[in-house]
Amino acid sequence: KWVGYDTRAFGDFGGIGNTLTLEKVNIDTQSIIVMYTAPNQIPLNGFGPGTGAVSFFPYGDAVVAIRGLDGIQYGGTARFGAMVTPTDGSVGSYGYYVTDARDVTPPFTPGALRGGSHRHEPSGDGEWVGFTYNDQIMESLGTNLRTIGVTKLGLPVNVDSALGNQNGNFTVLVVKVKPQGEIVPGSDDIYQGSDDSWVGEYGYQKPDGTWQRARAFIGRTVTESGGTRNEVYIADIPEDITVAGPDGPLEGTETTFPMPPAGTVQRRLTYSDSNCGGIIRCSLDGKWIAFTRGGQVWIVSPLGGDPIQVTTLASSASKPWWDPSGAYLYCISDNSIWMTNVIEGDPAFGESVRITDPTLYPGIPPDALCVSPDGQWIAFNRKLDRGDGVTLNQVFIVAIRKLAILDIKPGDCPNQFTVNKQNKGKIPMAILGSPELDVADIDVASININGVAFPVKSPSVADVSGPGESVCDCGTGPDGYPDLVLHFSQEDVVEALGLEALSEDAEVDVTVFANQNDGLEVQATDCMTIHFAGKGHE
Fold first, then answer.
1. Does the residue 298 lie in any domain?
2. Do 343 and 413 belong to one domain?
3. What counts of helices (H) and strands (E) characterise the chain?
4. Within a domain: residue 60?
5. 442 and 366, same structural domain?
């Protein structure tokens, strides 16, 4: 229900060094809360400290954002991750928590870095923060290369007291870079890592069934002909990041970069004939990594293999973002947001649908897509002149779908579904109406279960049930809102859900999909338990 943002401007008076606050806006009420205010900020001088680039944690009431250092000019090597919790505005200017420990005075400290972090992204379990990084020590030597690091929260690191040093959490680099002139042309070495993202909510699944935490990113390498090329890379990250690896100390030296921990594996995933780009975005199940190439959106597996082109839009596509279901990718093209089918094996794979009006704000395309965790909304920016010549990002939202409650066998709880040899008869299901959903707006012809369409038997509208506290709870009886009552052939349901392949007492999530008359998708979900009539089922 909340969208977080910073209040930076653009042009001569812009940038994070001039940004005073982090805010959030409620998508229902449009009420705004200032979550954090940077202290001692002199307007428009760019010194800092500044704050910006905010991200919510997946659990709890917390955000992480860039904050500049006190008493030091804001810059790419002089900033860190600040966690703000709670986000109700009660936290003072110094009520933040430092995420990444920082030590710029020799001897350096293992678990602390020596520069600036930005684009902080919490992991799906909320236990790590990933970021891009520039090293202050190497910058002073003329080698200012961007790379990628991670912080493991809850693992404290204390450093010497000095200007620019900060206690924080154990932090390391996970991507190895080297100066462009030292790279062997045609090798997989890189001189920049950026535009990174966590792979999956909890990582990706390896062929042996284990799960691997990783960050995917764009690496800049040198081609055989001596040119430069942006490619997709991945860094596998060990759970224990406290042990130094073979390339050198975690904290670096006075003349070398900090090096990745033992067990870190850096791999190249693409070998393209044109630059890969965009900020990497990964599906929540960890199966696919999305990026752009040649003006279209592509995906590649974290396990490797050939990339797959998923869009064929007439205008250049950019800024991909995954639907939480993994079934769709969103992107920007032709002054609009588009939704593209990426369901493996689906005949409609690669088909794209425009979901915002291209005639709105001509020449001011959507930007910075962000899909809500429940998949109902996309938040995005447009840069608008506020009337005095200052350009600011404004926050917009567009509905993708409505989520509703399904009640299987209304009045019967728990929902036990009996599979037998004949599978004859009908099974009733009700899409429950609510203040947000008028079931009279549903196009019955569009209804399907778990993506499989078949005839709906005898639809009717009646108030038969109300929602429980959560999706799979029993209905509460009539609640004053009309419901759409559907009757499906039991044989169709068994086939569509593959119920005969399940075991006794298996619990199945059932989702009925439909479209409103205006085209907006509705998803209604309930659960049922499988019972097999007769003996001998295994």
1. no
2. no
3. 2, 36
4. yes
5. no
Clarify whether residues 514 and 480 are in a common domain.
yes
d(CA 343, CA 183): 39
The rounded radius of gyration (Å) of the Cα atoms in the chain is 26
Cβ proximity of 483 and 439 under 8 Å: yes
Phi, psi values for residue 90, rounded to 5°: -85, -10
Burial of 173 (0-12, 13-18, 19+ CB in 10 A): buried
List all residues 6 or more positions away from 278 whose beta carbon is below 8 Å from its beta carbon: 195, 218, 290, 291, 292, 297, 318, 319, 320
Binned average pLDDT, 10 residues per bin, the chain of 538 residues: 91 83 96 96 86 96 97 96 97 95 98 98 98 98 97 98 97 98 97 98 96 98 96 98 98 98 98 93 97 97 98 97 94 97 90 93 95 94 88 92 89 81 79 92 88 78 88 84 92 81 84 87 89 61
What is the 8-class DSSP label of residue 136? H
Residue type, 381: N
Number of domains in the chain: 3
**Encoding tokens for residue 47?**
């010194």
Based on the domain organization, do 451 and 423 belong to the same domain? yes
